[in-house]
Amino acid sequence: MLEEISFESWYLYLIICGVLYFCTNYLYIQYLNKKLGAKSPGSCKSDGCFGFRSGFEMLKAKKIGRQVDLLHERFNDLSNPEVNDTFTSYNFGFPMIITKDPENIKALLATQFNDFSLGRRYDFFKPLLGKGIFTLDGEGWKHSRSMLRPQFAREQIAHVKALEPHFQLLKKHITKNKGQFFDIQELFFRFTVDSATEFLFGESVSSLKDESIGYNQDEFDFAGRKDFPEAFNKSQIYLSTRSLLQNLYWLVNPKDFQNCNAIVHKFSDYYVNKALNATPEELEKNSGYVFLYELVKQTRDPQVLRDQALNILLAGRDTTAGLLSFAVFELARNPQVWKKLREEIIERYADGATEISFETLKQCEYLKAVINETLRLYPSVPRNGRFANKNTTLPRGGGPDGMSPILIKQGQAVMYSIYSTQRDPKYYGKDADVFRPERWFEPETRKLGWAFLPFNGGPRICLGQQFALTEASYVLVRLAQCCENLQLTEGIEYPPAKLTHLTMCMFDGVPIKVD
User: Fold this and answer.
1) Which of 207, 213, 202, 198 has its CA nearest to residue 231?
2) CB of 440 within 8 A of CB of 372?
């Protein structure tokens, strides 16, 4: 009988089904809007058929370092950009709410925390990160957080002296390159992976020890140690693409991705097994704090230990390296700021490291302003997202004035752009796009609330924020003590292209010359 139905009949049947689906969906949305007291949000320019055009535009922008800027520009395409901070968009066929409104972000992360979850983030990131604090929801996340919170107690992050040996290696590279341009971002990533692996595993990967400053890397290789940093970087590129594709994430699983994950896992498994095989006496007598040695007292599950360690390593390495890179980029562009920062540091510490401590770093007011301004313009995680657990609302974005609640259907994605919030003139004035640390001494800036959110907020606020701030502060102080002038190479565009994976850094590095 099916053979008797013509192609035209099938075509008509599909059209009728499509029309019925969209009509039913429209009526259901109107019903929910009325029930929940919500109004429809605005929309940006056409996303193309089922959002494939906007999806491919985002992938293209990602390749040239303009992904977050493209998203930022879409807010300006709204019918009333001065008022509307929230809009609907389609991405590869899937509807998404995009917002930069601090009240909506507050609802997502705090006041309506239980209405939202990470959705399919675990599926996106599982091949590399497994079941860690950044991929889990619900009870799994609560257990992870309770297990990890003690590892970031003040006494653990206050030991800045552990950073000095790594800085001395960084300084050797800087001294070697004095008088010529070199990429300091690449050195920052090596510095932070060295310090993070020492904190996490008890032994540094020693990536700063290479032939150029008199070390033979073969002396330091084990468990794929030399290959680990590059493999970790490449895996993150794949994870970022998987998250962009949303429900089509499974399309990205090439052999190269699998090989990189295997290298990363082999590296971390070496240290996990070492911790598991250590005797209680060895765990107790270790001279310094080791994250894995403390964690192994709470769980003997090697998968849990590996996954949590890699989740923390991702944050510990990439966020601080990105922060330092953007800070030096802006300080080189603004020599008057660098001069003022150096004056504060030299006055307090002279040229030595003995007086630098967790407590004294917190007293350097201009240093804190420089770091805050860097994090404002270049947040480590520029955009993030949640998925609705049920039919619910966000407080603003609906109606002509953008002040009415908006409907979020169960399963719908909501993306929030901290990058755009922290560049909004409504909160930072007409010079919101200008690097000006002095704004952090103004009364208005001290009342920003959810308009300044470099480390997320609510129950999932970053556990390691003080660790990152302390490490970045220490490195900037030591740089100021040994580098009088910073000079950027000519021709770098502004705003700079940004490499955005799970975190953000400079797309083309930071080529500078120091003296």
Assistant:
1) 207
2) yes
Range of the domain at 396: 36-116+381-426
pLDDT at 224: 59
Distance CA 472, CA 451 (A): 22
Please check if 462 is assigned to a binding site: yes
Task: Say if CB 185 and CB 508 are below 8 A apart.
Answer: no
Q: Does residue 213 fall inside a structural domain?
A: no
Query: DSSP letters along 17-58, please?
Result: HHHHHHHHHHHHHHHHHHHHT---BEE-S---GGGHHHHHHH
Give 286's contacts (C-beta < 8 A, 6+ positions apart).
202, 293
How far, in Å, CA of 454 to CA of 465, rounded?
A: 9
Judged by DSSP in three states, 164 sits in: helix
459/450 Cα distance (integer angstroms):
14
| Spatial CB neighbours of 67, under 8 Å, sequence gap ≥ 6 | 58, 61, 498, 500
Q: What is the DSSP string of 381-392?
A: S-EEEEEESSSE
Whether 336 maps to a domain, the answer reads no
Please tell me whether residue 487 adopts helix, strand or coil conformation: strand
Tokens of 73: 């520009």
Q: Average the pLDDT over each of 68-77, 114-123, 176-185, 403-412 and give the range with the smallest value.
A: 68-77
Domain count, the chain: 1
Per-residue pLDDT of 416-427, as tens digits, reads 999 999 999 999
List the beta bridge partners of residue 394. Answer: 406
Residue 99 phi, psi dihedral angles, 5° rounding? -140, 155
97 is a domain residue: yes
Beta pairing partners, 41: 398
The token pair that represents 397 in the structure block: 């974005």
322 domain-assigned: no
Are 41 and 88 in contact by the 8 Å Cβ rule? The answer is yes
Does residue 241 surpass a pLDDT of 50? yes
Measured distance CA(384)–CA(417) in Å, rounded: 7
| Residue 430 to residues 103, 419, 426, 461, 485, Cα–Cα distance (Å) | 21, 16, 8, 29, 30
CATH code at position 61: 3.30.43.20
